[in-house]
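Exercise 3.2. Students should predict the tertiary structure of the chain below and write it as structure tokens, then compare their answer with the key that follows.

Predict this chain's 3D structure.
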Amino acid sequence: MLSESKSDEVLTLTADTLDDCREQLAKMYGSNYDIVERKSVVQKRGPFGLLSKPGVKVNYVVNRRVERPSAFESDEETQRLIRDEIIRRASGGKSAAEIQISEISSKVNEIAAAMQRLPRASGEEKIESIERVEELLEDNEFTKDYIADICARLKKEFSLDDLKDFSKVERQVVDWIGESIEIAKAKAHRPPRVIVIVGPTGVGKTTTIGKLAAQNVIIRKKSPDMPPIRITMITIDKTRIGAENQLRTFGEVLDLQVQKAEDAEDLKKIFDSVKADNDIIYIDTSGYSPNDSENIGRLKSALNVDGLRPDVYLAVTASTKARDLENIMQNYEPFGYTSVIVTKCDETTRFGNIISVLNEKRKAISYWTDGQVISRNIQRAGVVDFLIRLAGFNVDRIHVEEKFGEE
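Answer key:
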């Protein structure tokens, strides 16, 4: 137990031991005190002093200025206590540790602000070409992930000196874009080959079927030694007014048979009746929003015909935003489409969205269309077709044709 009393300038403190007295004085005054007298006393406690115990009483004075430390304390400890007490009083009660943390935090903020004001370091100036590539890819509407992959590859595979040569960097980026485009390979089929085109409304599925049919007819007509190709076009589109009439018009122009199926059972009957006499059977489907999972499911069921074994193509327009394209491809995945037909390429000058998403989804491109004339506005897709349409890039046409052209 500690007790303290005051008499003029001499103060008295009583505790169990001398060390207890010194500890208490140090807490109150640091080293600014002197013990002038100490003696053993009996500390009376309890009723009638029955619990009394021995103790120590010291008389001491508080110094008004910092003096030489007493023999009971080291110089280092004394200086620390004095410094902490001065800081505490000057800072409104904050400890030395709190002041130090605050000062460090302030210094860190000052350094961070100074770094923000610094001019670009020479190392960053050497990758200006990467920034130019990034801007070009953004202008072509490539996705952020695709752009990040290209830029990371440049940093990894090019030295700082090589990155200064923008023509070299640009040429390599064009090559990497070309390598990321997968073109569907033509496959041999035993007749009849069944081709189904699915996709959202408005992408031009019916017109694309007419173009594919016309292309095959024209090819056979250019080869007089080959017999005429036998084609039947079937529509199961029940949503678009005029879809059947449009397909029948194509049939009349091309002299091809056109039929309409109402459901899976009807499609089965038509298929069984024409499969022995046809080389190719095209099936046109209803267009639905990619979010209309109910009707997409019904369409999938309508195509569930024994023996049909179709090649399914997903048709999408070239101007579809990347995020919407990802959604379309995901929701039409249950059809098991083998590749993509990119339609309406004449309505945009930017193809980065198509290249990016198809690369990320690991899907190939089979055809692209660029107009309404069914006899000529469809082409088998090629890497060069997309590379020469890159906006802002200086594409070496001879180089890309040698590297990516058909053998």
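Discussion points: Residues 66-73, 117-126 have pLDDT under 50 and may be disordered. Residues 62 and 148 are 71 Å apart (CA to CA).
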